[in-house]
Design goal:
- The complex is a heterodimer of chains A (154) and B (188).
- Chain A has 154 residues and is mainly alpha-helical.
- Chain A has one domain (7-153): Winged helix-like DNA-binding domain superfamily/Winged helix DNA-binding domain (Arc Repressor Mutant, subunit A, Orthogonal Bundle).
- Chain A has helices at 7-45, 55-74, 96-104, 108-119, 124-131, 135-153.
- Chain B has seven helices and six strands; from the N terminus they run H-E-E-E-H-E-H-H-E-H-H-E-H.
- Chain B is globular.
- Helices cover 43% and strands 13% of the residues of chain B.
- In chain B, a hairpin with a 2-residue loop joins strand 2 (36-41) and strand 3 (44-49).
- The chains are: A mainly alpha (154), B alpha/beta (188).
- Chain A binds chain B through residues 3-8, 11, 15-16, 19, 32, 35-36, 39-40, 43-44, 46-47, and chain B through 1-2, 4-5, 8-9, 11-12, 15-16, 19, 21-22, 26, 59-60, 62-64, 67-72.
């Protein structure tokens, strides 16, 4: 059994990041509920977590799932994005629900990379940090995820 | 932004408690001896760390021995903090708090229940304690029932002294033990 730190420690260290990720992914209005759902789900699962190695990545992954749930529930409604960068091509328009269903079906690393990049608008280094992998690995996950999405959406 | 997260965390603590996901709640409390750490489960007060104890280590120990679902949730410990404050002010002689004894068992549990029954302002010896817990010769074990008492003050191990009348050791330091005994003599 892994020795898990007190859950409060995860909150102290990562609550602000999780909130930032969620604000990027679902907008300011949806972020509060998604934040609650994320941490309650994490609390529920925490005692049986086997690997205490990358708790930050684990939390961020749960946050994506909650963000995806949020988008699915809202279907085609437009998504408010707190800050839009030139290179971020998060276009929620055409078949939004369908797109998110496809995103949700990606393997976890790819799903996380895609959500972080386009919904949370994080740069590669931040994605890598959140996932607990190298920037190259993050780039690769993103690339694989996008390839798969393009194929499915084509 | 931090303010908003604080508010969200307040809600999270409430919801976690309501949904049965808060296995251990903890909070700090001021005392004339320094900052105390209090921890409780839904059953009751399970741990009180004296100012001499390391907070990080205490929390890590609780996470591994009880549950890692451990959150700082002061509202869950309002009653404990209030009663301790009254005790230090000399307004309270008995604690009326539910206790979770899960960190004690066997002889140590019997001895600690015995400690909990020593009235305010009185003392017992380590030998008294050993005899009462069912083994007169286990004086040394009676000593560790005190020295490693998970809930000092509320389970008043400072009221257990040596047979020769000297105070004996205390996890919070001999000075603290002397001051507590003196305070109880005055207020009692």
């Amino acid at each position: 059994m892994a020795e898990l730190p007190p859950f409060q420690k995860l909150i102290d260290e990562h609550a602000a990041l999780v909130m930032a990720v969620l604000r990027g992914a679902v907008g300011r209005d949806g972020a509060e509920d998604a934040f609650q759902e994320t941490f309650l789900a994490a609390l529920r699962a925490y005692p049986s977590l086997r690997d205490a190695g990358n708790l930050r990545g684990w939390l961020v992954t749960i946050a994506h799932r909650k963000a995806i749930d949020h988008h699915r529930a809202r279907g085609r409604a437009p998504v408010p994005v707190s800050s839009v960068r030139e290179e971020a091509v998060f276009d929620p328009d055409p078949a939004d629900g369908e797109l998110w269903r496809s995103v949700a079906a990606l393997p976890p690393k790819q799903r996380a990379a895609v959500t972080l990049r386009f919904a949370s608008d994080l740069p590669h280094e931040e994605i890598a940090a959140a996932l607990g992998c190298s920037p190259e690995a993050a780039r690769r996950s993103l690339h694989e995820g996008l390839k798969r999405l393009r194929k499915e959406m084509a | 932004m931090t303010a908003t997260v604080d508010k969200s965390l307040e809600r999270l603590r409430e919801r976690a408690a309501a949904e049965g996901l808060l296995d251990v709640a903890y909070a700090t409390a001021d005392s004339p001896f320094g900052t105390l750490l209090l921890a409780r489960t839904p059953q009751g007060l399970v741990r009180l760390a004296l100012p001499s104890e390391d907070v990080e280590a205490t929390l890590a120990d609780l996470a591994s021995r009880i549950s890692p679902r451990l959150l700082e949730a002061p509202a869950q410990l309002d009653e404990e903090r209030r009663e301790l404050e009254d005790y230090f002010e000399g307004r309270r002689q008995e604690f009326d708090l539910p206790i979770d004894w899960q960190l004690s068992n066997g002889f140590l549990l019997r001895a600690r229940r015995g400690i909990a029954a020593i009235p305010y302002g009185e003392t017992r010896t380590y030998t008294d304690l050993a005899r009462q817990a069912g083994n007169e010769r286990a004086v040394r074990a009676a000593g560790s029932a005190c020295s490693r008492n998970p809930i000092p003050l509320v389970v008043p191990c400072h009221r257990v002294v040596r047979s020769d009348g000297t105070p004996g050791l205390y996890a919070g330091g001999v000075e603290m033990k002397k001051r507590l005994l003196a305070m109880e003599r005055q207020s009692g």
